[in-house]
Structures are given as structure tokens and as C-alpha cells.
Specification:
Radius of gyration of chain B: 25 Å
Strand order of the largest sheet of chain B: 4-3-6-5
Shape of chain A: elongated
Number of strands of chain A: 7
Helix content of chain B: 25-40%
Strand content of chain A: 15-25%
Largest interface: A-B, 29 and 34 residues
Oligomer: heterodimer
Number of domains of chain B: 2
Structural class of chain A: alpha+beta
Radius of gyration of chain A: 29 Å
Largest sheet of chain A: 4 strands, antiparallel
Number of helices of chain B: 5
Order of helices and strands of chain B: HHEEHHEEHEE
Largest sheet of chain B: 4 strands, antiparallel
Helix content of chain A: 40-55%
């Protein structure tokens, strides 16, 4: 009995050795970790490139600034419709959903005085601040019969309920 | 056997480094090409200047309310104080900053009241140093400085001088966005 065990230990076939060699730590985990890391890298890379190819970042920057400048230059009682068809087409492609593109692309934060345009597939977006201190609101996107998409900016006095 | 394992580890590390290098390179090039910001500071300066001018001059006359001691330029001209003059804890160097100075003179060039100064005064001196030039340590600034003569309600001429400034440390690309 003693002999058998010794022979087994010498040849590296003891229960302990077999478990160690065949364990996930030795064989599986490094490969799995590399694959997961590579997948994360690939996903981030593809999302970034896809958004960039569609020009999401550039459109976000342009439209956020354009809307902020319109707000800064507007007087109370102003209603302005801004055509955002190009930006909407980009949002539709990146967000893969017309509903998401309609609801998430343009928003305004009245407390912090900023316009947010989010056209990429990521949740962030581009913020731009306006310095005008009127009551400003941004309508939801309006899809016209001719296919043109507009967003309406409304500027009112702060104490004006309308 | 040991050498082979060591080689594999070195190869894996090199593989990751290659991925990071290629990814970073592509991201930097694409970001530079596609994501360059559009510079609207000249337009912002003009809008700020116009807003101030329209606030002080109504129907061709200098507004008398301006000459009062307790005149608050922010509330009177509907300008948001938190954006134009953020408190220390809300200041963000990546954002544009604003500064303005309004002076009122009579016909003889004597000041009618103290200048109304607002906005972020921290970088205004840097801007006056860097007029028209750019440098990494100094902000990129756009000034608008003009004076006009107006008549007050008493029929006397007054000169209103407005200096508006918009500046930022973001000097990557300077293109003017033209509104339709």
C-alpha cells in the first residue's frame, strides 16, 4: 500500500497533483480573462468608432451650441423651431430605435441652464450652457409630414405661467 | 517548460499593449478628425454685448434705472449669475468663461457712475496679455469693446462703453458656427 502511493507520488499522479494540473486556475482562467478583456475592448472600440463614423459627437457639439446661442439671443415671447433632421437620422442609427431617438436626443436642464444633446449609443451626450435667465423650454421632437424633424424652443419671462 | 510559459506571458502582455496602442491611436485620430469642437465664442461675445446694450439703452435713451446705486445687472438684464459668475466650487476650467465691464460717461468724458463689472474676473488680466494670440497656459479670448453716444431723458448726451469677453482654455480648433 505504501509502495503504490509512493510510485503514484513520484510519477505525479497523486490526487493532489492531478487536481492542480487540471484546475481551472491553470488552464481555463487566463484564457477566459483574456477573452473577456478582449471583448470589452472590442465593444468599447466598436461603439466609439460607430458613433464617430456617424458623426454623433460632431452633431452633438454643433446642435448643443446652436440651441444655446438661439436661447441666449432670444427675447421673452419667442418661439423658434429648429430643424434637426440630420441629428435625428444619426440618433436613429446609433440608438437603433426611433422612440429612443425621439425621446433622448434633445433635452434642457432649466436648473443648471444647459442644453444636452445625446445622439450616440452611449447614455452621455454634449452639454452646453446658456447664460440667458428666462424661462426656457424645449419641446419633444416633431416629425413632420415631409420627413423633416424639428424641435421647438420657447422663451418666456420667468414669472410667466404660459 | 518554464521558459515556454514565460514566453507566453510576455506574448500576452505584448498583445495587450499592441491592442491598447492601436486602439488609442485610432481613437485619437478619429476624435481629432470628427470630434473637433466648433468655436462659438465670437458669436457668444456678440450676443452678450448686444444683450447688455439692449438692456441699458431703451428706445435710443440710456435707461435711468442704470444710474441707481442698487442696480443689479444680472437680474435687470436677465443674465444667469451662476453661469456668468460661478462660485469658486462651481468653476470649471473646461467651460467658457465670461466677463463684462460697462462704463457710463457724460459729454465731457467724466464718469457718471462706477463701472458695472460682472462675470469671472479671474482670467480677465490673462486675456488682456494674450490679445489675439494663443498659448497653452493662457486662455483664448474674444473681446468686443465699443462705445456709443446716447441721450438721457434730460436731453444730455451720455457715452456708454461696453466691453464683453468670452474666453476658454480649450484652443484646439477655432471655427465660427454660422447660424442660418
Amino acid at each position: 500500500m505504501r509502495m503504490i502511493l509512493r510510485v503514484g507520488e513520484e510519477k505525479g499522479c497523486s490526487l493532489f497533483n492531478i487536481k492542480k494540473r487540471g484546475s481551472a486556475e491553470d488552464v481555463m482562467w487566463p484564457e477566459v480573462v483574456w477573452i473577456i478583456l478582449f471583448l470589452i475592448y472590442a465593444v468599447v472600440f466598436v461603439i466609439f468608432i460607430k458613433d464617430s463614423i456617424y458623426g454623433a459627437a460632431a452633431y452633438e457639439d454643433i446642435y448643443a451650441k446652436k440651441i444655446a446661442l438661439i436661447i441666449d439671443g432670444a427675447r421673452p415671447g419667442t418661439d423658434v423651431k429648429v430643424e434637426v433632421t440630420d441629428a435625428f437620422k444619426v440618433a436613429e442609427k446609433t440608438k437603433k430605435s426611433r422612440e429612443r431617438a425621439m425621446s433622448e436626443s434633445f433635452s434642457i436642464d432649466k436648473i443648471n441652464n444647459n442644453v444636452k444633446v445625446s445622439l450616440g449609443s452611449r447614455t452621455g451626450g454634449t452639454l452646453y450652457y446658456y447664460f440667458s435667465d428666462y424661462n426656457v423650454s424645449l419641446s419633444s421632437l416633431n416629425l413632420g409630414k415631409d420627413g423633416r424633424v424639428t424641435v421647438q424652443i420657447t422663451v418666456r419671462e420667468k414669472n410667466d405661467a404660459k | 517548460m518554464l521558459n515556454k510559459k514565460a514566453n507566453e506571458k510576455v506574448m500576452s502582455l505584448a498583445y495587450v499593449l499592441y491592442l491598447i496602442l492601436i486602439g488609442a491611436g485610432v481613437i485619437i485620430i478619429v476624435a481629432q478628425y470628427v470630434g473637433s469642437p466648433v468655436d462659438v465664442k465670437p458669436l457668444e461675445t456678440t450676443i452678450l454685448y448686444t444683450n447688455l446694450m439692449e438692456c441699458f439703452v431703451k428706445n435710443g435713451f440710456v435707461n435711468d434705472a442704470v444710474l441707481g446705486d442698487k442696480f443689479d445687472v444680472y437680474s435687470y438684464c436677465h443674465l444667469n449669475r451662476n453661469i456668468l459668475d460661478p462660485s469658486e466650487d462651481r468653476r470649471d476650467i473646461s467651460r467658457d468663461f465670461f466677463w463684462f465691464n460697462i462704463s457710463f460717461f457724460d459729454e465731457d468724458g467724466i464718469r457718471v457712475r462706477d463701472s458695472l463689472v460682472g462675470g469671472n474676473t479671474g482670467y480677465q488680466s490673462d486675456c488682456s496679455v494674450m490679445m489675439g494670440k494663443t498659448s497653452g497656459n493662457f486662455p483664448y479670448c474674444i473681446f468686443k469693446n465699443e462705445s456709443y453716444f446716447f441721450m438721457n431723458k434730460s436731453g444730455e448726451y451720455q457715452r456708454v462703453k461696453i466691453v464683453a469677453l468670452v474666453a476658454s482654455f480649450n484652443t484646439r480648433k477655432k471655427e465660427v458656427l454660422l447660424l442660418p
